[in-house]
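Async update (no meeting this week)

Hi team, since we skipped the sync, here's where things stand on the single-chain job. The sequence we agreed to prioritize is pasted below, unchanged from the tracker. I ran it this morning and attached the output directly underneath so nobody has to dig for it. Comments welcome in thread, and please keep replies under the output.
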Amino acid sequence: MKIKKMSVLYIVLGIIVTISFFAVVFLNRPQFGKLPTGERLERIKKSAHYKNGEWQNEVPTKMMTGNGVAVILDYLFGSHPRTRPEKPVKSVKTDINSLPKDVDWMIWFGHSSYLLQLSGKRILVDPVLVSASPLPWFNKPYEGSDIYKPEDMPDIDYMLISHDHWDHLDYDTQMALRSRVAEVVVPLGVGEHFEYWGFPKEHITDLDWYEHKSFTDGFTFHQMPARHFSGRALKGNQALWGSFVIESPDGKHIFVGGDSGYAPHFEKIGQRFPKMNLAILENGQYDKTWAQIHTLPEQLPNVMDDLGALQYVTVHHGKFCLSNHPWDEPLQNEKKAAQKTGSKLSVLEIGSVLYIN
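Output:
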């Protein structure tokens, strides 16, 4: 009997060791990036927004406003109709290199990935053109939504990343684009991933909230707050998250909203940059149980009022299912918000071109 018990114990221990080994190997793949170290980490520790060993939002924020385990189980196994489209998503394949260089435009690639041309420069935001998950079978794009691949992108003057979540920072996309990106501008700490992945250190700019970087071509990038969180593996909130205001040489201001729950920073940004030419807002993958880290439909009009931009586009929908709402509900939300606030809204199909006046 004792021998049998010892045999069972050895088998259990063997299973635990095997699982642990493969977990360590999995989490050490380059796709997971790297936590901040060295000079970057020392700079992070000096930030007023970094406390108790992690980045903090400007206002108290709960990741989950409900039971976390119940939320995850409901997301994975609950019954939620129409979270994915029954037919292929409408999209158009635009030849980006054929577009004129002397006008300003935006092309949306689904979810939060889009390309801006301002004053002849190409600015790529949160490109996820291969995979939005470390597991190839999880979080697959809707049929028809993934018509753009890294090879379709032109040479990029500036790459902006709002935060390091998998649906905003894709390792495979970055590796495919690395040789064609001139400058990377990211929230403080995200640059560690890029340096680890072989991007030249001298062309990576990490910014804390309310910092900015001006380049010799006349562009200035203002790093502004967002109410969210970060992380690609087990330890979160080690790299900052945020929004951007892009200031072009001809005086245009474009707001890149990233992911954010509703908070006073929207009004602050609107006051600091009045009448921005275009604001690109998160609208999708929301839920009452994580109401403080994503914008809810009823809060979208408040965001528009606070920012006071001349024109709006919403993103963070149309490609991946990361919540339980119907996949096309965000399209209804943005129209209602624009009608309520009297705002000018442009509703985009994936691949269509929006010219920015």
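Quick observations from my side:
The chain has a mean pLDDT of 92.
The helical segments are 2-27, 38-45, 68-77, 171-177, 191-196, 265-272, 300-307, 329-341.
Reply here if anything looks off.
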